Amino acid sequence: MDFSDLPDDELWLQMQDDLYDGMKEEVAAETNEALKRGYGPTEVLEKGLVAGMDVVGVDFRDGVLFVPEVLMAANSMKAGMEILRPLLTETGAPRVGKVVIGTVKGDIHDIGKNLVAMMLEGAGFEVINLGVNVDADKFLAAIKEHKPDIIGMSALLTTTMPYMKVVNQMLIDERMREEIYVMVGGAPVSETFAMAVGADAYGRDAATSVDIAKAYMDNVRKQDKIDKAAAAANQ
Ligand code: B1M
Hints:
235 residues, alpha/beta, 5-stranded parallel beta sheet, globular, binds CO-5-methoxybenzimidazolylcobamide
């Protein structure tokens, strides 16, 4: 497989077509070719992989593609993401915070959630990825074990997104809600919905989610300094 003869714009189109057709090896080779040409991992992700998956989404909705074809496309996307993973997660920065993330109960979509997890790792966060179909008990067990600063919930189905409220309510019932920042995301989720389920933030995409998580940790550290200064002054 040699894509070196293709001009850049044709390489992107070929990559999108191959992802659509579930051609895993080709997508991996094109990902490598784009990186070899000097494109950064985020650009390769957006112009090749995400753009290809967008077309898959439209044709899936319109009944042109069915689950088996979409699964093959998803596997091709994952093959490309595996190549980009070390580049997206490479960081020399000290750990800035801890995140527990998962796709909520009833939902097995994990591409976007894994992307958010990778980009958070790249920004210096320690990420505990609970996978898909995660119920409130599993979130609770992970929170007790790992004591994260943030929990992230993903949902891609309108039928599963209300489960985010169940997890949020569980945190309230367990008297843990005050200490944990709750961020939610996924294609059908919106800012309004996020507020309605009681989340602290809505992550529109992976890059925005990282910015939100970093801003929250900055505030935590500032508050920590204020609290320490106040405690010292009171002694
Ligand atoms: Co499904 N599926 N799917 N699917 N699937 C959608 C979501 C759908 C919109 C397709 C359509 O009709 N156009 C539709 C949902 C309709 C609705 O609810 N209104 C749908 C359906 C109906 C279904 C099934 C019910 C189909 C069936 O069986 N009849 C079924 C459900 C299975 C289940 O979960 N119980 C199903 C199954 C599948 C596959 C297994 C075949 C496969 C998933 C494979 C996998 O993930 N391993 C699949 C896929 C691939 C899709 C589409 C085509 C692509 C999703 C994707 O990976 N996008 C999708 C159509 C679409 O969304 N356009 C579709 C790429 C990814 C990078 O984007 O996930 O949006 P996204 O993530 C973004 C942001 O949303 C955000 O950041 C990410 C990166 O920028 N983000 C977060 C995501 N999570 C976040 C969490 C955060 C913050 C930000 O927290 C901190």
